[in-house]
Design goal:
alpha/beta; Isoleucyl-tRNA Synthetase, Domain 1; 4-stranded antiparallel beta sheet; 16 strands; about 45% helix; about 15% strand; elongated; binds 5'-O-[(L-methionyl)-sulphamoyl]adenosine
């Protein structure tokens, strides 16, 4: 069976899940579910990033030991994903014993290659982002990524010889023009890399909450170096069978802020250890809230669980994907969410299902397949949009099909028909709903299951998205969506 490996970044446990981290995870989940429906054996990985100064400080502020603190927040992440219908196969934590074994074995390889050396780090450090920053990269004296204050650091440290991989990285990008999606980000990275690729400080002396650096226990491993390795420790690198089965990863889903680590540092680390390259880094845009940057201090952080409780996880998932192309930024507002529920989910889909099934339930006979209406579905286009991770585009096409089915019913008024014409129109409509249940599954899994149950069928696979003779035993059930008051 063909395999497919998809990952999310592992989330820092200094804060609870919010709409941004939920978005990354939902995008990965949609890809995972779609690939499963294509018949692939999928491994979908998510987890938590639990070391470093930021976590140490957050634990101290909460009056807890780091371990108690990370245990609590990590389980909060696990509990968030279930109600959002996230179907991960493994949840990795960087405090897992197995992860630490991989980190140490990986270090051995790099050490033996001569890619690790001792030096002095002098520069800036942004604690919230856990990132080292050079003088030239500072923006108005602050962190170029988050704009917050940075600290001056000068200390003995061990370095990874990242700069040695400059030419190999450039070659990797030339050989794989789609290594980073969208392409514009690849150009940006290529430019930055040409101008400025320095060796990377991979240990810290002052940080206690980290994996001890085996070659010099006064140091702990820099949290990003440890974190990136989750993608292979989760597969039990180097010895486990699942590593051979699923590596190289098909897609790392990441936010646009962490592309550098995934498209530069990570491939170079893998090159040094002689491990195959990831196939693709999918970089998504960020969400603002009612036009403003989301932040704790502004008190506008959106809790995805609260939204899912209020509107349903599927409606939230639908909104997040339909509202913007994956790689662009977008704005979250409850009004926009409600208007998509009342418009697209209620009027287009839920009503279509209710009307068709009310009629079909009364009908007890053999339906008839007739070519014609099936031309309204362009599966090649939907699949190709999916393959290029244009999720909003694929959903848009699926919705055009929903609307065309609606129009077909309005135009044909099957409730007024009888004879052969009725058998054909009803068959078309039910077949369309069966196919819609498959197509919407990865976006809205609960809704898809509900629909296919009402159609009296087991949910199909992508290969089943072809018209034929409908053979379910229809039984109307709960409306897919209800109107929401604004
Ligand atoms: N721990 C690192 C990742 C290590 S992966 C080896 C990290 N964690 S994070 O918790 O800060 O962020 C995780 C993800 O959430 C990133 O992909 C980031 O882009 C995403 N988002 C955080 N805020 C966001 C928005 N406001 N909007 C969309 N996504 C955002 O970075």
């Amino acid at each position: 069976m063909e395999t497919f490996y998809v990952t999310t970044p592992i989330y820092y446990v200094n804060a609870k899940p919010h709409i941004g981290t939920a978005y990354t995870t939902i995008v990965a989940d949609i890809i995972a579910r779609w690939k499963r429906l294509e018949g692939k054996e999928v491994f979908f990985l998510t987890g938590t990033d639990e070391h470093g100064t930021k976590i140490e400080r957050a634990a101290a502020a909460a009056g807890k030991t780091p371990q108690t603190f990370v245990d609590e927040i990590s389980s909060e992440f696990m509990n968030t994903w279930k109600p959002l219908n996230i179907s991960y196969d493994k949840f990795i934590r960087t405090t897992d014993e197995r992860h630490i074994i991989t980190v140490n074995e990986f270090l051995d390889k790099l050490w033996d290659n001569g890619d690790i050396y001792k030096g002095t780090y002098e520069g800036w450090y942004c604690v919230p982002d856990e990132t080292f920053i050079t003088d030239t990269d500072l923006k108005d004296g602050n962190c170029p990524s988050c704009g917050r204050e940075v600290q001056r650091v000068k200390e003995e440290a061990y370095f990874f010889a990242l700069s040695r991989y400059k030419e190999d990285l450039l070659q990797l990008y030339s050989d794989n023009p789609y290594f980073i999606y969208p392409e514009s980000k690849l150009k940006e990275i290529r430019g930055r890399l040409k101008d400025n690729l320095k060796d990377l400080d991979i240990t810290r002396k002052g940080v206690k909450w980290g994996i001890p650096f085996k070659f010099d226990p006064e140091h702990t491993i820099y949290v990003w170096f440890d974190a990136l390795l989750n993608y292979i420790s989760a597969l039990g690198w180097p010895n486990d069978e699942s590593f051979n089965k699923f590596w190289p990863v098909d897609v790392h889903v990441v936010g646009k802020d962490i592309i550098w680590f995934h498209a530069v540092v990570w491939p170079a680390m893998l090159m040094s250890a002689g491990i195959d390259m990831p196939k693709l880094i999918l970089a998504h845009g960020w969400w603002t809230v009612n036009g403003t940057k989301m932040s704790k201090s502004l008190g506008n952080v959106i809790d995805p669980i609260e939204m899912a409780k209020k509107y349903g996880a599927d409606a939230l998932r639908y909104f997040l994907i339909k509202e913007k192309p994956v790689w662009e930024d977008g704005d979250f507002s409850e009004n926009a969410l409600v208007s998509r529920i009342n418009g697209e989910l209620m009027s287009d889909l839920s009503n279509l299902v209710a009307r068709t099934l009310t009629l079909a339930e009364k009908f007890d006979g053999k339906l008839k397949y007739n070519e014609g209406f099936s031309d309204n579905l362009d599966m090649t286009q939907i699949v190709s949009k999916f393959d290029s991770y244009n999720l909003s585009g694929a959903l848009e096409d699926i919705w055009s099909f929903v609307r065309r089915t609606n129009k077909y019913i309005n135009d044909n008024e099957p409730w007024k028909l009888n004879g052969e014409k009725l058998l054909i129109v009803l068959n078309d409509a039910l077949e369309a709903l069966r196919i819609i249940s498959i197509l919407i599954y990865s976006f809205m899994p609960e809704t898809a299951e509900n629909l296919s149950q009402q159609l009296g069928l087991k949910l199909g696979k992508i290969d089943d998205c072809k018209f034929g003779e409908f053979n379910g035993k229809v039984k109307r059930g709960k409306n897919l969506f209800e109107k929401v008051k604004n």
